[in-house]
Specification:
A 7-stranded mixed beta sheet has the order 2-1-3-7-6-5-4, sandwiched between helices. It is 59% helix and 14% strand. It is of the alpha+beta class and 376 residues long. A hairpin with a 4-residue loop joins strand 5 and strand 6. The chain contains 12 helices and 7 strands.
């Protein structure tokens, strides 16, 4: 892909409406503002690694590239319209399946070759400190003999920094579209480093919260675990993609400098992928520990409730026992306290001692019965 070949015949399409290039990637805008924002972020022509023009429209970019077949066009788009992508497809002979993927977005990271054109899908990531969460973006890259087209969905990555870096190194940029692709790959992979650091800090905080008994920590573990699943989907396919590119070094005559550059990127993404796998494992173990601690805490609460219930039951037994003991003399006294003239034993000389003795016997008997049953 690094050898320069004559450009294929241009397939003309109706020129799209004029658009003014804006600055490189910005944070997401409201829907109404995004509708009025140009999709063409920047279009630049390079010759021998140096910028020669920054056309204001796609049509002007196409025209100038025709006039300088030894040049290279780098076109950056942000959520382009269907007509814009179809215009580019006609001009650069892009495959319809790749164009369809670039329009729909929500693709898995992949690398596909359509003739002389590479189509690469990347998932960029950035860590949002304020929300303590990971935000993912999607980037589609078309790499041809003399063009690079980037289609960005989301705020990440910041391709303006990649463009600035390449323009400051004309020797690297002179290596052509492959050099731009590898620079983009490097920027995406380097962007994972702050995410890894932020997630590591979150995991440390979660461990503290777990052993501190924070009731909201389970939700935070779950949300971070979902982000790590998404992060894993972004990084794991990159390992195979980069090894696939390295396998084609000899076939496509890739420059030796770019080979070293790509190997370095592959090392970084392998390291990042391993860290993400470690994060998922750590979160799984933390979730297990948290569940165990929650269960232990619930068991302790249930045991405390049971002990409190037992103590209350013992008190109720004592109260019930004394109530029964006191009820017996009350009953006898109540009967003998009724004012009836013909009541038996009313005029009996031993009536009073008998009533006292009866109350004493009943109370004593009840006391020993309850005592034997450990109610008193």
């Amino acid at each position: 892909m690094s050898e320069r070949r004559p450009r294929a015949a241009w397939r003309r399409q109706p020129e799209p409406p004029a658009r003014t290039p804006g600055s490189e990637p910005q944070p997401p805008e409201p829907a109404d503002a995004a509708a009025d924002r140009p999709s063409v972020v920047q279009a630049t022509l390079y010759r021998e690694g140096r910028k020669v023009a920054s056309p204001a429209t796609l049509a002007e970019t196409f025209r100038q590239l025709r006039e300088h077949p030894d040049g290279m066009a780098w076109i950056g788009l942000h959520r382009p319209t269907e007509s814009e992508l179809h215009s580019l497809a006609g001009e650069f002979d892009l495959h319809e399946l790749a164009v369809e993927d670039a329009l729909e977005a929500h693709q898995r990271p992949k690398l596909e070759r359509y003739g002389d054109t590479l189509f690469v899908v990347l998932r960029a990531a950035r860590y949002l400190d304020a929300q303590e969460e990971v935000d993912f973006g999607e980037l589609h890259v078309f790499v041809g003999q003399d063009f690079v087209i980037t289609v960005r969905h989301g705020a990440a990555p910041d391709l303006s920094a990649v463009r600035h870096r390449m323009e400051e190194d004309p020797d690297l940029l002179a290596l052509g579209p492959e050099a731009v692709l590898y620079a983009i790959l490097d920027a995406v992979v380097d962007g994972y480093a702050p995410v890894v650091a932020g997630v590591q800090n979150d995991i440390d905080e979660i461990e503290t919260e777990v052993f501190g008994g924070d009731p909201a920590v389970s939700r935070r573990i779950y949300e971070l675990s979902r982000e790590m699943v998404e992060f894993q989907r972004a990084t794991r396919p990159l390992v195979g993609m980069l090894h696939g590119l390295m396998a084609g070094f000899a076939k496509y005559g890739t420059d030796e400098e770019l080979q070293r550059y790509l190997r370095d990127v592959a090392d970084h993404v392998t390291h990042t992928s391993e860290r993400v796998d470690g994060f998922r494992q750590a979160l799984t173990e933390i979730l297990t520990v948290n569940a165990t601690l929650v269960t232990q805490e619930q068991n302790a609460e249930m045991r405390a409730l049971a002990e409190a219930g037992f103590e209350q039951n013992e008190e109720i037994k004592k109260i019930s026992s004394w109530a029964a003991i006191l009820f017996a003399p009350t009953l006898v006294g109540t009967i003998y306290g009724m004012n009836f003239d013909t009541m038996p034993e009313l005029n009996w000389a031993f009536g009073y001692p008998f009533a006292i003795l009866l109350m004493a016997v009943v109370c004593t008997s009840l006391y020993f019965v309850f005592k034997r049953r450990d109610w008193l």
